[in-house]
Amino acid sequence: MEYIHNSVLLHETLDWLDIKPTGTYIDATLGGAGHAAEIARQLSGGTLIGIDQDEFAINRAQQVLAQHNDKAQIRFEKANFSQVSQNMKDAQTPFVDGILMDLGVSSFQLDDGQRGFSYNHDAWLDMRMNQDDALSAHIIINSYEEARLTHIFRQYGEERWASRIAEFIVAARKKISIDTTQQLVDIIKAAIPAAARRDGPHPAKRVFQAIRIEVNNELAGLQTSIENFVDILRPGGKICIISFHSLEDRIVKDTFRTLAMHCTCPREFPICICNTQPAVEILTKRPIIPSNDETTQNPRARSAKLRVAQKI
How does residue 2 score in pLDDT terms, banded at 50, 70 and 90? Predict the structure, then answer.
């Protein structure tokens, strides 16, 4: 199967990174390697470090980036970006000039009917980005208690009908194991009243998002990872982060804001005694969103938000 990958906010991200030909850059979420390929294309003697926890993504990126091996040093690491960011910090990695984190699910993951990420393809309930991980969507749906399912759907999916959907799932699995994405979609549709399903996104969208976040532990350590990556940024270097839902964007925004603070003293203190020095300057006061042309060509880009900070 040939996968078509559309890199979200590609030109905006590359403009902000302002690639130096001999610089060192990290793509912490390789995915379809669209951003990485453009970074590599602009290098001449520089270094690109590509990171992803998905073996398929690493293999595909190696093929995509092979044409740039003569002009750039390209390294790959199969790992979660949180592990790599800490390892790089601990190893006192030489400073890098720019870092990209694209927190969305790659098109090839959604389009691969065997991965179970999409509610539009009938497949085994999986959703693991790292196929070596033990936890899968199948385990969550068939073993989590109703209260825990409700919490996940509400917390990670911001799903209005979280408790009702969890109730329907538990009732259904008492009769037969819930094995496929289509089974789950049918249960979700049955749980949500018809009037609530007429407008808005696909009725399973929020629940599938919530399960994916739980399976891959996507939000845990995001703040720490950003802080660790900023630590290895060269002064003047930039970190660009693309998020696709409000939970991720809130963490990115709040972490940037904390790193940019000049003072952490309580408000009632008459003078500053903490001597806090800001680590970054926030360059995007408001997130950058895709143009109408981009969302028309790639509807999956609709919810994308890009935030950029520069190391001081």
Answer: very low
276-293 mean pLDDT: 95
- For the beta sheet containing 305-311, the strands, ordered from the edge strand earlier in sequence to the opposite edge, are 72-78, 46-52, 24-27, 96-102, 233-243, 305-311, 280-282
**What is the three-class DSSP state of 75?**
strand
Q: What share of the chain is helix, strand, coil (3-state, %, to 5)?
A: 45, 15, 40
- Name the token pair of 301: 């880009």
Question: What pLDDT shows up at residue 111?
Answer: 64
What are all long-range contacts of 134-140, with beta carbons under 8 Å and residues at least 24 apart?
135/214, 135/215, 136/215, 137/211, 137/212, 137/215, 138/178, 138/179, 140/211, 140/214, 140/215
User: Residue 3: what pLDDT?
Assistant: 47
Q: What is the pTM of this model?
A: 0.88
For residues 46 and 34, what is the distance between their CA atoms, to the nearest angstrom? 18
Averaged over 250-272, what is the pLDDT? 88
Q: What's the rounded mean pLDDT across residues 221-249?
A: 95
Question: Which residues in the chain are classed under CATH 1.10.150.170?
Answer: 131-216
Do 152 and 211 meet the contact criterion of CB atoms below 8 Å apart? Answer: yes
Q: Residue 145 corresponds to which tokens in the numbers above?
A: 């208690």
Q: Which CATH number fits domain 10-103+219-311: 3.10.20.30, 1.10.1040.10, 3.40.630.30, 3.40.50.150?
A: 3.40.50.150
